[in-house]
Structure formats: C-alpha cells, structure tokens
C-alpha cells in the first residue's frame, strides 16, 4: 500500500502473534528499515490501528505498546477481547502472521520523565500493557525500583505472568510484583490498596485499568498524600472518530485574515497562516509538518502542546484537566486561534 501524504500513517506487517491468555494476544509488527525513525517510541506510548469494518469501512483503536524500546526491535501490542467489542475481537479472530495493518506512529504522554525515579505501577487486566513496557524499560534502561500492583480476575487471566516472574528473578532488588486476584481477595478496595501503597508516597505512580479500579486507586493514592503531579493515568476508551481520514483545510476566503502561528516542533520553529476555524493540527499536517497526534478528537492528549504567547480556545477537550490548562497546555487537534498571533511549542 502506498504511503499517504500524511507522514504519521503507515502500513506494517505482522510477523508473529502470541497467545497470552484465553482472551488476550500480542501482535508483533516488524518495522522496515526506512520507517525506523517514524516508530521510535517511549515506554508507555501506544499505536493507533485501523481495523476494517463492513459497516463503516474502518474503525480506529489505540493499543499500548507492551514492548520496550530498550529491549525489542519489533513493536508489540497486546489486545484483550472486550465483551461485545468490535475491534478487539476482530483482531483476536483475524490477525495472523502476514496480516498487514494501517497504523499511526506511536504517541501518548503516559511516559515516565525519568527511568531513574522510583515507580509505583498499578494496573488491572489489559491495563498492564503500558506498565510492562515501562517496567522493562526502567529495569534495563534506568536505575528505578519498580513496585507493580497487578489485579486480575484469576490466575488464568494474568497476562505476562511468566515474564514478570522472570523479571523478579533477574532483578530481585529492583522489582516486586504484587498480584491481586479477585477470586482470592475480592475486588480491590481503597482501604486495602492504602496498605499496599503506603510505603511509596514519593514514587511516580502510573495507573491503568477499568474506570472503577482507577477510582479506588485514586482514592488510595490521595489517602497517602501522593501529590497529583506524581500521578499519571491512562484511560482506555474506544475512539469514535476517524484519525486516518484525509485532512481538508477550508479555503481562506476573501476578506478573511488568518491568524499567525509560530510553532516549535522537533527543535525547529515554523510560521504558518492559521485559518480562524481550523484546528492547528490540521494546518500543520496539511503543510507536511510531523506534529504528534492519535485520535484527532480531543480524547487522548497525544497532541498536547504549550501556548507560549497569545490565546486559543479548544473546540473539545476530554482529556486536559485544570492543572494542565493552568500551565498553558492545549490540544493541537482542537485548538483554534483567538488572538492574531500565537506562539506554541510541542514540548510535552
Ligand atoms: C491510549 C489507549 C491505550 C489502550 N491500550 C489498550 C491495550 O493495550 N490493550 C487493550 O486490550 N485495549 C487497549 N485500549 C482499549 C482499546 O482501544 C479499545 O477501546 C478496546 O479494545 C475495546 O474496543 P472494541 O472495538 O473491541 O470495543 P467497542 O466496540 O468499542 O465496545 C466497547 C464497549 O462498548 C460497548 N458498546 C459498543 N457500542 C455500543 C453502543 N452503541 N452502545 C452502548 N455500548 C456499546 C461494547 O459492548 C463494549 O462493552 C486502549 C485505549 C486507549 C485510549
Ligand atoms: S490527537 Fe488525541 S487529543 Fe489531540
């Protein structure tokens, strides 16, 4: 398949599938030499896959990388079947060695700033996927100590169980895995989690799992006084839009004066005319600039950037919280200009 003008969209071949549990499998993509620079990633980031659909043509879904950039040449995502879900079941039923899939370059901000700072990783079910990448990367590429709390229904549903055991043998002083099996201990409660997390109030916490699980984890971390700035959360949700769609920039009409954006991207500054109703990301991509994104619907924060001067407004924001807005963050896929001149930096 030809590469599109959009430099984030690529076509990768599946070179292996690994059955992890009865309802989860890992998909291994080979990255051809000429695309290696497009698929550099940080532990905790995700790929966005296009999944064919007879009714809508295709749907897009994000899957966290379980591989580590410090260890693995190939890209690995791990997909767990969602009950009644379309894409996860399609992948588990149809993807095999030789399948080619359309994929966006890695993105996401669920990434430790340092692999040397101690990490409290808390996940449930398929939420372990980005935590696995972070844990492996910290052990191999950093000096952090890792404490992983990993909740599952029962032993059969534990993804990466053997690999985690091996990591504890290889790095006995640096990683502890606390399995929480519902079948033995019931659903985790905030009180019970407080007992587990209490020794680690200064660690950086990375949390990923179903919404009710994240709520009790949030309560437990608040109860031990962990500052919000140490708590990082990845919310799994299905995209509703189509980030693979072509980008259409409306013509600038006579009498319309576009704003001007000066954008710092990959260490360089570029200046673009910014039509008043067009999101900045669309303007940049249509001009061939390689700005980061995934969902293009204000849901993932892959396109987060900082407004240095001037003013913008977001058409939609499902991901940035007050603390983000207070430090000037905006979403490039939703930002339109309010002032005539805006300076923005992709510095996240
Ligand atoms: C950053 C990120 C990383 C992720 N990483 C992973 C990962 O590593 N591994 C992983 O397995 N998943 C991951 N996900 C989740 C993944 O993207 C999908 O959301 C998940 O696979 C479910 O997709 P699906 O198409 O199978 O389900 P969907 O078809 O989207 O359905 C999801 C749920 O909604 C219900 N539903 C569907 N349509 C309707 C409707 N019209 N009305 C009411 N209910 C409805 C379904 O019954 C189902 O329970 C990640 C998500 C994000 C955002
Ligand atoms: S690309 Fe997902 S929020 Fe902008």
TrEMBL record:
Q: Which SUPFAM superfamilies match?
A: 2Fe-2S ferredoxin-like, Ferredoxin reductase-like, C-terminal NADP-linked domain, Riboflavin synthase domain-like
Which domain of life does the protein's organism represent? Bacteria
MF term (GO), any: oxidoreductase activity
What cofactors does this protein use?
FAD
In the UniProt record, does the keyword Iron-sulfur occur?
yes
Residue ranges occupied by any 2Fe-2S ferredoxin-type domain in the UniProt entry: 259-348
Q: Output the InterPro entries linked to this UniProt entry.
A: 2Fe-2S_ferredoxin-like_sf (IPR036010), 2Fe-2S_ferredoxin-type (IPR001041), 2Fe2S_fd_BS (IPR006058), Beta-grasp_dom_sf (IPR012675), Cbr1-like_FAD-bd_dom (IPR008333), FAD-bd_FR_type (IPR017927), Flavoprot_Pyr_Nucl_cyt_Rdtase (IPR001709), FNR_nucleotide-bd (IPR039261)
Q: Which UniProt keywords are listed?
A: 2Fe-2S, FAD, Flavoprotein, Iron, Iron-sulfur, Metal-binding, Oxidoreductase
What PROSITE patterns does UniProt report for this protein, alphabetically?
A: 2FE2S_FER_1, 2FE2S_FER_2, FAD_FR
Matching entries from PANTHER family are given as: 1,2-PHENYLACETYL-COA EPOXIDASE, SUBUNIT E, NADH OXIDOREDUCTASE HCR
Please report the name of this protein according to its UniProt entry. Answer: Ferredoxin--NADP reductase
Species of origin reads Antrihabitans stalactiti
């Amino acid at each position: 398949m030809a590469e599109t003008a959009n430099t984030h969209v690529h076509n990768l071949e599946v070179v292996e599938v690994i059955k992890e549990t009865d309802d989860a499998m890992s998909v291994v993509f080979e990255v051809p030499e000429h695309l290696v620079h497009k698929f550099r990633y940080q532990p905790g980031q995700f790929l966005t896959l296009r999944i064919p659909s007879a009714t809508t043509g295709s749907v897009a879904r994000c899957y966290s990388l379980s591989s580590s950039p410090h260890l693995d040449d190939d890209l690995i995502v791990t997909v767990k079947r969602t009950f009644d879900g379309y894409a996860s079941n399609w992948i588990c039923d149809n993807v095999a060695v030789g399948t080619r899939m359309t994929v966006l370059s890695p993105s996401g901000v669920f990434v430790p700033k340092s692999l040397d700072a101690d990490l409290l990783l808390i996940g449930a079910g398929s939420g372990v996927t980005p935590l696995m990448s972070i844990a492996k990367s910290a052990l191999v590429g950093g000096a952090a100590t890792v404490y992983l709390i990993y909740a599952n229904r029962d032993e059969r549903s534990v993804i990466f169980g053997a690999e985690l055991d091996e990591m504890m043998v290889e790095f006995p002083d640096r990683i502890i895995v606390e399995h929480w099996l519902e079948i033995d201990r019931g659903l985790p409660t905030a009180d019970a989690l407080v007992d587990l997390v209490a020794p680690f109030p200064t660690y950086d916490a990375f949390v990923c799992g179903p919404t009710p699980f994240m709520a009790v984890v949030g309560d437990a971390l608040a109860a031990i006084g962990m500052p919000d700035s140490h708590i990082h959360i990845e919310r799994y949700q299905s995209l509703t839009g189509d980030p693979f769609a072509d980008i259409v920039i409306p013509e600038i009409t006579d009498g319309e004066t576009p704003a001007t954006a000066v954008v710092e991207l990959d260490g360089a500054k570029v200046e673009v005319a910014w039509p008043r109703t067009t999101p900045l990301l669309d303007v940049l991509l249509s001009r061939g600039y390689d700005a980061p994104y995934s969902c293009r619907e204000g849901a993932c924060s892959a396109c987060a950037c900082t407004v240095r001067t001037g003013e913008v407004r977001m058409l939609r924001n499902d991901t940035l919280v007050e603390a983000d807005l207070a430090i000037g963050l905006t979403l490039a896929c939703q930002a339109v200009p309010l002032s005539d001149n805006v300076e923005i930096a992709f510095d996240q």
